[in-house]
Specification:
The chain is of the alpha+beta class. It has eight helices and seven strands.
Length: about 200
């Protein structure tokens, strides 16, 4: 498997979340990084490709700073990333008539931020879907939590009412792969039809 990489936009979105907190956490998190990593983080452009490990280092530093006071910070950061930078950069991918259009489109939102690997639908029905992560070494549960928050925000932008996302299988806990169960309420007038059944 090739070395995991991430788009600089994912790193910037984390910094923007820290800024938005308004409590000085960005400067404290950056100070907690080693000198070399801090310089790398400060120089990365949103369109750059960066080693995924650099992003994990930033997340770990943020987690050490925030987990005691904001236990769900990573889910918040994932949602913030999609609602802010994701919607700005990839609005055409996120804004759909319903979540099924978003989840089953040919363009992968995951692959715009990370590689190798992909998230794919392995089961679906009216108001629900299961996504599986293939061929990507998450390395930390923080990644899984970030995806949970990001997917929740994405479903809402794509027209899903009251979205709920649960991380139901985790490769870091001994499962063969990571999976997320997605559910949302379907308005009677939404036009969302039952899709063809999919199985893994």
């Amino acid at each position: 498997m090739s070395v995991p990489m991430a788009k600089g936009a994912a790193l910037h979105a984390t910094l923007e979340y820290l800024d938005a907190r308004g409590d000085g956490s960005r400067s404290r998190v950056l100070s907690a990084l080693g000198d070399g990593e801090r310089v790398q983080v400060e120089r990365v452009a949103p369109t750059d490709e960066v080693p995924y490990g650099l992003l994990v280092s930033l997340w770990n530093a943020a987690d050490a700073e925030l987990r005691a006071t904001t236990p769900a910070w990573m889910e918040e950061a994932g949602g913030f990333s999609i609602a802010a930078r994701g919607a700005q950069m990839y609005g055409g991918i996120l804004r759909k008539n319903n979540p099924h259009e978003f989840l089953t489109q040919s363009v992968s939102l995951f692959q715009l931020f990370y590689h190798p690997g992909d998230m794919r639908v392995v089961d679906e029905g009216v108001g629900r879907a299961v996504l599986r992560l293939d061929d990507f070494d998450a390395a930390t549960p923080l990644f899984c939590r970030r995806q949970t928050g990001g997917l929740t925000a994405a479903l809402a932008i794509a027209g899903g009412d009251e979205p709920v996302v649960r991380h139901v299988r985790c490769a870091l806990e001994g499962d063969a792969f990571c999976e997320w169960e997605l559910r949302w309420k379907v308005p009677r007038t939404s036009g969302e039809l039952s899709p063809s059944p999919r199985t893994a």
